[in-house]
Amino acid sequence: ALPATAEIYEVGPRDGLQNEKVVLPVETKLAMIESLVDAGIRRIEITSFVNPRWIPALADHMEVATRLRRREGVRYSALVPNMRGLDSATRAGMDEIAIFMAASESHNRKNINKSTHKALETYAEVVREARDRGMAVRGYVSCVYGCPYEGHVPYENVEYVSKALVDLGVYELSLGDTIGVGTPRQVAETLRGLLRAGLRYEELAVHFHDTRGTALANITVALQLGIRTIDSSLGGLGGCPYAPGASGNVATEDVVYMLDGMGVDSGVALDRLPSISVEIGAKLGHELPSKYLKAHVGA
Ligand code: HMG
Ligand code: MG
């Protein structure tokens, strides 16, 4: 059975842009976010308060977050890796943040320059302080289905990091297939394992990169297990510079097309997405990979 509704968590302005060579002007980013909200997106990640030397494409985080016009009923979030990032997010007026780490030791060292143990220690302080400041905190576990440096990631590592983040107080956990290697059976086994381990399906979200074309199949399995929050990125933009081989996130238009067809209401107007993708693609200097977009533009 499928749920009647699902929620899209749009990561285009963050995950989508973090790996692009062309850095979009702040105005373009703001227009992109506003257009996505106009299309019905109600949860959106707008930037990352990380070291700009690590992610130059989002070096304008402060300007994006302070200039963005907030709208009633829309939840805006941003990645935060440490206390310095939390302080920036606070100054920028964010009321929601997301912390992120991998289920694999090597990816943590490459992506956030910390061991798994040290990352959890850092995030314990970040979450405590963020919640004291009245912020909601989402958590990401990346490399859930495989790691670019270690290959196979044992399920036990995924469960360990997932439970640890929930214990710190994140209200939702997004399970990332950072390099797009997962297949439906593995996804079902992982999700069932986490549900058995005591995580609630309302606090789980899925985050697929469509590197090998398995993202929609994986999302269907997650929906069948009762997961109702799906991360996706406009046009299929995205990838992590510290995950070699990672390609775009699953495209928002591909997910919404599938949900519409299956009678799962996301509140997002599919017909408003292609023009936004075409415009952003033109500004970035390449076509975006969404399959729905290609079919639509070609039609
Ligand atoms: P570090 O070098 O270990 O940090 O980086 P440090 O604490 O030693 O500080 C070094 C310098 O960085 C100092 O500056 C700090 O002030 C500065 P200096 O004194 O040398 O001039 N610094 C900062 N500047 C701005 N904002 C900050 C900040 N923190 C320190 N918050 C750090 C550690 C975590 C900062 C770094 O590794 C980093 O920025 N990493 C971010 C990497 C990233 O954003 N990756 C992509 C997102 S994750 C992802 O894509 C996966 C996901 O999408 C899910 C999935 O797909 O599975 C979420
Ligand atoms: Mg990602």
TrEMBL record:
<comment type="similarity">
    <text>Belongs to the HMG-CoA lyase family.</text>
</comment>
<feature type="domain" description="Pyruvate carboxyltransferase">
    <location>
        <begin position="6"/>
        <end position="274"/>
    </location>
</feature>
<protein>
    <submittedName>
        <fullName>Hydroxymethylglutaryl-CoA lyase YngG</fullName>
        <ecNumber>4.1.3.4</ecNumber>
    </submittedName>
</protein>
<dbReference type="GO" id="GO:0046872">
    <property type="term" value="F:metal ion binding"/>
</dbReference>
<keyword id="KW-0456">Lyase</keyword>
<keyword id="KW-0479">Metal-binding</keyword>
<dbReference type="GO" id="GO:0006552">
    <property type="term" value="P:L-leucine catabolic process"/>
</dbReference>
<dbReference type="GO" id="GO:0004419">
    <property type="term" value="F:hydroxymethylglutaryl-CoA lyase activity"/>
</dbReference>
<dbReference type="GO" id="GO:0046951">
    <property type="term" value="P:ketone body biosynthetic process"/>
</dbReference>
